[in-house]
Write a structure and sequence with these properties.
Elements: E1 9-11, E2 23-30, E3 40-42, H1 43-46, E4 50-54, E5 60-65, E6 70-73, E7 77-81, E8 86-88, E9 92-94, E10 98-106, E11 118-125, H2 128-131, H3 138-149, H4 162-173, H5 180-194, E12 205-212, E13 215-222, H6 225-238, H7 240-243, H8 255-269, E14 275-280, E15 283-289, E16 293-300, E17 303-311, E18 317-318, E19 327-330, E20 348-351, E21 355-356, H9 361-376, H10 379-390, H11 395-402, H12 406-418, E22 422-426, E23 433-437, H13 439-443, H14 450-454
Parallel strand pairs: 3-6
Antiparallel strand pairs: 1-2, 2-12, 4-5, 4-11, 5-10, 6-9, 7-8, 7-11, 8-10, 12-13, 13-17, 14-15, 15-16, 16-17, 18-21, 19-20, 22-23
Length: 455
């Protein structure tokens, strides 16, 4: 499905956290106040009318909606309780008076899980640098959580205020670096004080775009200003790390060109193809991606209610050894052939070039091992490998053997190929293409994960 029509947007005045900040926030405003009533509410608005229950699986959360309207839960929403703290890997809209299962990742590795335990929405969402990892493996997410909590990123925001200094000291002494929600809670007072003037409460505001020297760092918008207000504080706090980065005095962001960049990107978004990632009864979420970004959009009966885009993480970089020239980055860089022809070189912003570190082979091996474990704990992964242990199979044979939907089996096979567990070959008579386990795949013992799946 293509991204449906986005409501007409005006751009508010760009805002910097600090004078020499390396990025700006731009409020996104609807042209006219919408007159129609929303057909959904956010989880922040309905209180205990939505129940969240641990299924006993690390990657699934049961959501029971007792509210008479659909309820929207944003990607990265952190839920906590008497069991392992998790975060939603994608946004979902849950139908009225119904229940569903949401895909989640753990963001508190050292805490156990317990089926039937209750959760509640913490009111916080994962920071932008962790959010992108939620669609990767569980191991990747844990690494990102540890990376985020291992160093305090807002030293330049802490003034002589005694309370802020005390909080900073507590963060620096913190031992549980896998407790993302606890860490965010500790940071909150400092971030909220620093970002109290960020433009997030305009009467017509429906979203925000964050732009730095490399382009668009993130963009989010709803189809209704009431929805934005219900989530605005946690969303804007999500971009604090990016907005607090400093730039050299010799660089300056051209605000007019930033506006052109955002306008062009919104134009590019419309009509992009999305891949269905969640859906029940007309309440659907689709994933979109480009060379430099990943994102999603959520619809109700085909009508767009929410769009979220984050920048893809680049390879780790190290500072140049000598001054590097500024490189123009044009408004269409994220869309390739789909870039808006109205954007030209005069609508550019600037960026540093950088050097890429050599690949850390040991880290790559560890990440791949984590990915394989994560794959086998998924029902689709477990059943795919178990079926191919018997013999190579065509797509149709594999689907019949596992009883999975076309979408699910496609996702399972692609993931197995990316992990180096499955490859394509031919029948001896060359009559058809089959999926076959690689040497790595043949060494797996999927039956060891059966208990995990049935807990």
């Amino acid at each position: 499905m293509k991204v449906p029509k986005i409501i007409e947007i005006e751009l508010g005045e760009p805002w910097k956290l600090q004078e020499n900040g390396a990025s700006v926030a731009i409020p996104l405003l609807e042209n006219e106040k919408m007159q129609t009533e929303r057909r959904y509410r956010l989880i922040t608005e309905v209180g205990d009318q939505v129940r969240l229950v641990d299924t006993g699986r690390i990657d699934r959360l049961q959501v029971v909606n007792g509210y008479p309207q659909a309820v929207f839960i944003r990607k990265g929403s952190i839920v906590k309780g008497d069991t392992q703290t998790r975060a939603l890997t994608m946004s979902i809209a849950v139908a009225p008076m119904s229940k569903t299962q949401a895909e989640i990742k753990c963001v508190y590795a050292s805490k156990g899980i317990r089926g039937g335990a209750g959760f509640s929405f913490s009111g916080r969402i994962t920071p932008e640098t962790v959010t992108e990892s939620l669609r990767a493996t569980q191991g990747t997410t844990w690494n990102k959580v540890h990376e985020y909590t291992s160093s305090f990123k807002f030293n330049n925001l802490v003034n002589s205020n005694t309370m802020a200094t005390t909080i900073l000291n507590e963060i620096n002494k913190k031992q549980g670096t896998d407790d993302l929600e606890g860490y965010l809670q500790a940071e909150e007072s400092i971030i909220d004080e620093a970002m109290k003037n960020i433009p997030a409460d305009h009467v017509r505001q429906v979203g925000i775009a964050v732009v730095d020297f490399e382009g668009i760092a993130g963009l989010e918008l709803f189809n209704h200003s009431d929805s934005w207000r219900a989530q605005s504080q946690s969303v804007t706090r999500n971009y604090a790390e990016i907005l607090s980065r400093m730039a050299s005095d010799i660089f300056e962001i051209n605000m007019q060109k930033v506006k052109h960049l955002v306008e062009g990107f919104i134009i590019q978004l419309q009509g992009m193809d999305g891949v269905r990632a969640y859906g029940e009864g007309g309440y659907e979420t689709y994933e979109i991606s480009g060379e430099h970004f990943i994102g999603e959009f959520t619809t109700i009966s085909g009508n767009l209610i929410h769009v979220l885009v984050t920048r893809r993480e680049k390879a780790k970089t190290e500072p140049p050894q000598s001054p590097m020239p500024r490189v123009a980055v044009y408004g269409g860089r994220w869309g390739g052939r789909g870039s808006d022809p109205r954007l030209d070189k005069d609508q550019a912003i600037h960026s540093y070039s950088s050097q890429v570190n050599p690949i850390n082979e040991e880290q790559t091996r560890q990440d791949n091992a984590s990915g394989i474990v994560d794959y086998l704990t998924k029902k689709r992964g477990y059943e795919t490998i178990l079926a191919l242990k018997e013999n190579p199979q065509t797509f149709n044979e594999l689907q019949k053997r596992t009883s999975m939907s076309t979408t699910t089996i496609t996702k399972a096979v692609r993931e197995a190929e990316s992990l180096g567990l499955v490859h394509r070959s031919y029948r001896p008579d060359k009559s058809s293409t089959v999926y076959e386990l690689t040497e790595t795949g043949k060494t797996l013992k999927p039956e060891k994960f059966k208990a995990t799946l049935e807990d």
